[in-house]
Amino acid sequence: MDDIELIKSKINIVDLVQEYLPLKKSGVNFKAPCPFHQEKTPSFVVSPERGIFHCFGCQKGGDIFRFLMEKEGMDFPESLQLLAQKAGVILKRTKNTSSDKRHRLMEANLKSAQFFHHLLTKHSLGKVALKYLKNRGLNESTIKEFNLGYAPNSWESLVSFLKKRGFKVEEALEAGLIVASQKGGYDRFRGRVMFPLVDVTGSIRGFAGRVLGAGEPKYINTPQTTIFDKSEFLFGLNLAKGEIRQAGAAILVEGEMDMITSYQAGVKNIVASKGTALTLGQLELLKKYTDTLLICFDKDLAGDAASRRGIELADKVGFNLKVISLPSGKDPAELALKDPQQWEKQVIEAEPIYDYYLKSVSRRFSLSSAEGKKRASSELLPIWAKITDPINFEHYLQKLSALISTPENVLRGQIDKVKESGTETVNYSTALRQADTDKVIARPRRELLEEYLLVLLLKIPSDLTFVPSFPETLFTQETYRSLYVLLVLYLDSISFKGGSFSILEFVKSLPVEVVPLTDRLYLLEVDDKLSSSKNWQSEIEVVIGELKKALVKASLEKLSAQIKNAQSFGKIQELDILNKRFRDLSVRLKGLN
Hints:
It catalyses: ssDNA + n NTP = ssDNA/pppN(pN)n-1 hybrid + (n-1) diphosphate. InterPro entries: DNA_primase_core_N_sf, DNA_primase_DnaB-bd, DNA_primase_DnaG, DNA_primase_Znf_CHC2, DnaG_bac, DNAG_N, DnaG_primase, TOPRIM_DnaG_bac. Pfam families: DnaB_bind, DNAG_N, Toprim_2, Zn_ribbon_DnaG. Belongs to the DnaG primase family. By secondary structure, the chain is of the alpha+beta class. It has five domains: 3-87, Zinc finger, CHC2-typedomain (DNA Primase, Chain A, Alpha-Beta Complex); 100-228, DNA primase, catalytic core, N-terminal domain (DNA primase DNAg catalytic core, N-terminal domain, Alpha-Beta Complex), CATH 3.90.980.10; 232-352, Dna Topoisomerase Vi A Subunit, Chain: A, domain 2 (3-Layer(aba) Sandwich); 365-421; 428-587, Orthogonal Bundle (DNAb Helicase, Chain A). A hairpin with a 2-residue loop joins strand 7 and strand 8. The longest helix has 36 residues, at 533-568.
């Protein structure tokens, strides 16, 4: 048993989590309001059997090490050391520790950044790229401060450079610097201006590479690696964090050049995200320095679903949100470069997010017409429904009412309906027994049933030997289908020995990429009565029957469309065949009812 498994065997995850928050027993598991995001209904589940936690709200999950890393902001080596002390385990000294590995990957990134920067500033290969950056308004001091570089338009320049400095191809691959090939690997970044992605400690986690001139894709980023996760990274935070604290606010833009140009112009409390969809990880990074966030993206935030999701999340974690509006046709980089005083003025005049939303619909829709009011309310009511602060909610409900000349009580009723249709948790048993319609309960009913079937199969009663016999085609989603096949293989293998299902043993047999989905499904709750073999088998039969009916109905809908097409074009022979299939399937469906 290695150190990690030994520590896990000695520390009960329930005991560890209860040092931070009270847990309540819920069946075989424990529940609590999530410690990583604000919520009223507990969706944070801890499984002592699996030694894992998972939040069905913010989707964070993992083992005792991940919990400590999330809660205390530690890296893995730090959590390993602390939990080893708690468990009384003396860690073995090995050459290939996780810490050593991460250090090597960051060292490879550092050497690559030095290589790119040298080519940009000192070598003839970088002249065109250097000219491009200077034409974009960057001076030499800024280029040096951000350690910008140039990746030559070559397949193996970086590969050769790293090899000469003692790095293995496998290390460059794991750092995301090269792409695997039959010969080993080739440079990921070619013919691009390079932006090192530096964390708050000054370590280089990855790169963003922008193509010179025209070309697609415009940007290539380091993929997800052991040391880089774009959902937990903000460009420029290493330089801007002090400025953010001093200003009491952070400006968020979308592009690296927007951030750099503004920083050079003197507005330095600014960071850039990798896309408009803000994540919890990014918000937690900012929350350490400020609770005021000024957003400036070159698109209409009200009409962009990804932006809205991030804004809703920021509201939930308690940010004071404002929007910086720019003159038509301008972006932050252009305004900061050509008119820095105007850029500063726009920052100072940032308006509260919900006022911005109201102005946005006023600008885009004719609010004197019924159609315009309908479109505006359709867009804003789902946003208003997610305002967490009650005073804010009442204030903006009044403003929306006045804007579209609609009584508050009418809007309040519509918002209540939005909230009801957007429930985050679903009672499977209730959903299962609903009338057979196409009604969506948070997600399509078909998807809900497929998920529920897998949840049941991961909770086979201990006194029951069971091997499913229905085909994997009953699942329409590939991830569910793959997990089902693996589960059947496992259940078939233990049935010969008369063994009972063990979630621990099953997880050990799984490919690592399937484990998170399995854990999430296993932690979903079912009725207590389903611990009885008789009730469980009855429930399984009901769900399988419902899915078979859904499969036949989908086939009937497809046939119906084909029949209409054949009728339109007078295909008599084909029509006879299709009608016969339709009748046969209708009989089959009747037999399933």
